[in-house]
Amino acid sequence: MKGKGAEPRELVNQQFRLVVDAGQKPVRIDRFLQSRIEGVSRTKIQQGIDAGWVLVNNRLIKANYKVRPGDEVIIKVPRELEEQPAQPENIPLDIVYEDDDVLVVNKPAGMVVHPGAGNRSGTLVNALLYHFRQLPTVPGNEQRPGLVHRLDKDTSGLLVVARTELAMQHLARQFAQHTVKRSYLALVWGDFRKDSGTITGRIGRSQRNRLLMDVYDDDELIGKPAITHYQVLERFYYVTLVSCHLDTGRTHQIRVHMKYIGHPVFNDATYGGNRILKGTLYPRYRQFVENCFALCPRQALHAAQLSFIHPRSHQQMNFQVSLPADMQQVIDRWRNYLQQYNK
To answer: Angle, to 10 degrees, between the axis of helix 29-36 and the axis of helix 42-50?
Structure first.
């Protein structure tokens, strides 16, 4: 390929391919990719399109191109974008706990955890490097100092950071052995027949869209084993507030498992929760849901509880944070809607 999009092969670090679904309505390529690529802003996508790193049907396109069913989209990630060291940035942190070994933060929705292609600044790591200059790393993972786990960009809640080599090794071992306890609150579509249950199924990259995750049967030997336990906390007829406990920590685990059992997380654009999946056809109801989407413009998922063994004292550390305002407001709206519905 010659012209604006040409580049030496050695400069391309990653390449993703996706095919537009048959039912996809015409939408601008930049908006389409924003809904498919986690942690990348629309501005960055537009810059990538202008730089020639996005092809549709093997052709260069502009940001206002509208995708069509069957379009093959190729996204190339240049190596040079991945190798730039993260820079300290004066970004406020909501610190829940801090000592010489560990740090527990309450990450807001909308913050990417670590730098990557399209996200060189504004991440949790950029903030950590400013407030805590010396953080440990492991070989091959220098871009993620102090990190032993992560949260999706639009998932809020608790995250533990290692401040010493000892803490990093100890916490990494706990996560590998699945002894860290994590509990999430999620507002999901639909009502549940049972008050509790367990979701199993291997999670791996989607065969149709490598930017997404999917659930596979055990005999397919694709992906990694994943176990999610859920408990119904409150029912709103069309949506349900659930608590989810993870035995494993796979990418997008709760979001993928909930979609798998027919209960996508409310307003999860990546896995179909940003559409009205349950309820009536009345305009008033549709407007109500759209208002809720506007109040919580991200997947309604929050890491509410976190427990681990302290790497130095070996004591059990337990932390809990309340729902953020956006999720709380939406839950209050559904609670009031149900009360009016039952009058």
So the answer is: 120
pLDDT at 67 over 50: yes
Q: Name the average pLDDT for the chain.
A: 87
Is pLDDT at 332 greater than 70 in this prediction? yes
Examine the fold and report which residue of 120, 151, 176 is the final residue of a domain before the chain moves on: 176
Q: How far apart are CA 7 and CA 11, in angstroms?
A: 7
Residue-wise pLDDT for 189-203, tens only, equals: 999 999 999 999 899
Task: Name the domain count of the chain.
Answer: 3
Whether 115 is in a domain gets the answer yes
CATH number at residue 140: 3.30.2350.10
pLDDT beyond 50 at 174: yes
| 295 is a domain residue | yes
Instruction: For residue 152, indicate whether it is catalytic.
Output: yes
Is 261 found in the same domain as 151?
no
Options 152, 214, 268, 326, the catalytic residue:
152
The residue range of the domain holding 131 is 95-176
What's the confidence (pLDDT) of residue 76?
Answer: 74
User: Do both 126 and 265 map to the same domain?
Assistant: no
> Which three-class secondary structure string do you get for the chain?
CCCCCCCCHHHEEEEEEEECCCCCCCEEHHHHHHHHCCCCCHHHHHHHHHCCCEEECCEECCCCCEECCCCEEEEEEEHHHHCCCCCCCCCCCCEEEECCCEEEEEECCCCCCCCECCECCCCHHHHHHHHCCCCCCCCCCCCCCCECCCCCCCCEEEEEEECCHHHHHHHHHHHHCCCCEEEEEEEEECCCCCCEEEEECEEEECCCECCCEEEECHHHCCCECCEEEEEEEEECCCEEEEEEEECCCCCCHHHHHHHHCCCCECCCCCCCCCCCCCCCCCHHHHHHHHHHHHHCCCCCEEEEEEEEECCCCCCEEEEECCCCHHHHHHHHHHHHHHHHHCC
Residue 172 has pLDDT above 70, yes or no: yes
| pLDDT recorded at residue 205 | 84
Span of 86-90, 150-154, 246-250 with lowest mean pLDDT: 86-90
